[in-house]
From TrEMBL:
<dbReference type="GO" id="GO:0005886">
    <property type="term" value="C:plasma membrane"/>
</dbReference>
<feature type="transmembrane region" description="Helical">
    <location>
        <begin position="426"/>
        <end position="444"/>
    </location>
</feature>
<dbReference type="InterPro" id="IPR038377">
    <property type="entry name" value="Na/Glc_symporter_sf"/>
</dbReference>
<keyword id="KW-0812">Transmembrane</keyword>
<keyword id="KW-0029">Amino-acid transport</keyword>
<protein>
    <recommendedName>
        <fullName>Sodium/proline symporter</fullName>
    </recommendedName>
</protein>
<dbReference type="GO" id="GO:0015824">
    <property type="term" value="P:proline transport"/>
</dbReference>
<keyword id="KW-0406">Ion transport</keyword>
<feature type="transmembrane region" description="Helical">
    <location>
        <begin position="151"/>
        <end position="173"/>
    </location>
</feature>
<feature type="transmembrane region" description="Helical">
    <location>
        <begin position="121"/>
        <end position="139"/>
    </location>
</feature>
<dbReference type="InterPro" id="IPR011851">
    <property type="entry name" value="Na/Pro_symporter"/>
</dbReference>
<dbReference type="GO" id="GO:0005298">
    <property type="term" value="F:proline:sodium symporter activity"/>
</dbReference>
<feature type="transmembrane region" description="Helical">
    <location>
        <begin position="450"/>
        <end position="471"/>
    </location>
</feature>
<keyword id="KW-0769">Symport</keyword>
<comment type="similarity">
    <text>Belongs to the sodium:solute symporter (SSF) (TC 2.A.21) family.</text>
</comment>
<keyword id="KW-0813">Transport</keyword>
<dbReference type="InterPro" id="IPR050277">
    <property type="entry name" value="Sodium:Solute_Symporter"/>
</dbReference>
Length: 476
């Protein structure tokens, strides 16, 4: 690989490590380490939320899915954009207000404090769900980093995973929420540049070569030129709904995104953040889908063995080395921006929710921050080992986590915000039924017929409502 690309990438890694260690010099409380202590502007939290929410899933997973599935992938983009818009316009400020009202640092802490009669079980069970799925999620991001470094520099995937993991673990340990958010800002900028510039270059190349996207999709076969993947009738409706169902995971159930809203300083910051986040999202998803379809037109469906490597492949084929280096940094940034947040959320569930609150270990801030840093290291190493052993695609693993976390928590969050009668029994019913549904759906093959994301959300929501109506006032 051209030395220019290598130098740019090393500079990028040094920069984000520098940000992490800069904040490590500052004295931090537990609240600072996990939620920024109301010291971060809304625009930065918005960019951090978007970088965290999209990750390698968008740059590698979604572009790869569009490359493999063609036009039908657009329903994923539509579902995600609507879900993100709804969450920013109707849920973000509620998170800010509820955080201030209950003085909490995490999503499990909020639910356990608000519904204190069953708070102990809520805190333990919700923390276990987060830890379980987020270790998988972090492993998927490390895997994405390994793939990108492999195709970019020829580094073996194993070593690419190790490099990605070491960098993320180090700066997350060093500066906590501060370093995670401010490195996310840089990463969000790199990601959106990649997702805007590369599709434009690809479309120009298609025009100059006098190629036809429609003809290329039709020639590729496999339903790539169909908005329903070639399916008709009920099967077409199912495909559209299954792809659109990513929508449900954005409705307040992702703790790593909720943390950005909880950290907002004011309603004004939320409004500024919403404008930035929604604009970023539309550009990013249009870019990701366009990239996948343009790749089919320019290079054919057999261009890469692994569809999730199509973005790095395109950058190296189409861009001058100096620009490829910058844009490839955006692909690695996508992985890091989510992995760091997942590490921090898993850590907060262990150090804050379990050790500090559930086990009532009243250490001072200095010891709590030290425990948090040690926990980041331990969780990161476990995720690293899983990244070596798992053969699942990024898209698949993120689908698991999106259902198991987002669609289990989302009904509880929505009902806690907008239904005064909602109870502790409803919270427990949402979490337990959501977790069980996800595991059953994903391990029995039901997900191939009807997506676990929708099934989990619907079942968890119904169970939460029924439990509240049946058991409120008895033990709540």
């Amino acid at each position: 690989m051209n030395s220019v690309v290598a130098v740019e990438f090393v500079v990028y890694l040094a920069l984000i490590l520098g940000v992490g260690f800069y904040f490590a010099r500052k004295k931090m409380s537990q609240a600072d380490f996990h939620l920024g202590g109301k010291k971060i502007p809304g625009w930065a939290l918005a960019l951090s939320e978007r970088a965290t929410g999209e990750s390698a899933w968008c740059l590698l997973g979604l572009t790869g899915f569009a490359f493999a599935a063609g036009l039908s992938s657009v329903w994923i983009a539509i579902g995600c954009v609507i879900g993100i818009t709804v969450s920013w316009l109707w849920l973000a400020n509620e998170f800010r207000k509820e955080r201030d009202k209950y003085n909490t640092l995490t999503l499990p802490d909020y639910l356990a404090t608000k519904y204190a009669t069953r708070g102990k079980f809520i805190r333990w069970f919700s923390s276990i769900i987060i830890i379980f799925f987020f270790v998988l999620y972090v492993a998927a991001q490390f895997s994405g980093g390994g793939k990108t470094l492999n195709i970019t520099f020829g580094i073996p995937v194993t070593w690419g995973i190790v490099i990605s993991a070491i960098v993320v673990i180090l700066y997350a340990m060093a500066g906590g929420f501060f370093s995670v958010v401010w490195t996310d800002v840089l990463q969000a900028i790199l990601m959106i540049i990649t997702l805007v510039v590369t599709p434009i270059v690809a479309l120009v190349a298609i025009a100059r070569s006098d190629l036809s996207i429609a003809s290329a999709l039709s020639s590729a076969g496999g339903g790539l030129d169909s908005w329903t993947g070639g399916a008709v009738g009920f099967a077409a409706g199912t495909l559209i709904f299954n792809n659109f169902s990513w929508f449900f995971g954005y409705l307040g159930g992702q703790p790593q995104l909720d943390a950005r809203w909880m950290a907002m300083r004011s309603e004004k910051d939320v409004k500024i953040g919403a404008a930035i986040a929604i604009t970023w999202t539309v550009l990013a998803y249009v870019g990701a889908i366009t990239l996948g379809i343009a790749a089919i037109t320019l290079f054919g469906t057999g261009a890469v063995a692994d569809p999730e490597q199509i973005l790095p492949f395109m950058l190296l084929k189409m861009m001058p080395p100096w620009l490829a280096g910058i844009l490839l940094a955006g692909a690695v940034a996508a992985m890091m921006s989510t992995a760091d947040s997942q590490l921090l959320i898993a850590t907060s569930s262990i150090s804050e929710d379990i050790i500090h609150k559930a086990m009532h270990k009243d250490f001072d801030d200095r010891k709590l921050v030290l425990i948090s840093r040690i926990t980041i290291l331990v969780v990161g190493v476990i995720a690293l080992v899983m990244a070596f052993t798992s053969k699942s695609l990024i898209y698949t693993i993120v689908g698991w986590a999106w259902a198991g976390i987002g669609c289990s928590f989302a009904p509880a969050v929505i009902l806690s915000f907008f239904w005064k009668r909602f109870s502790a029994s409803g919270v427990i019913a949402s979490l337990v039924s959501g977790f069980v549904t996800t595991v059953i759906w994903m391990t029995t093959g039901l997900d191939a017929m009807f997506t676990a994301r929708a099934a989990t959300f619907i079942i968890a929501f119904v169970c939460a409502v029924l439990a509240t109506l049946l058991f409120s006032g008895k033990r709540d």
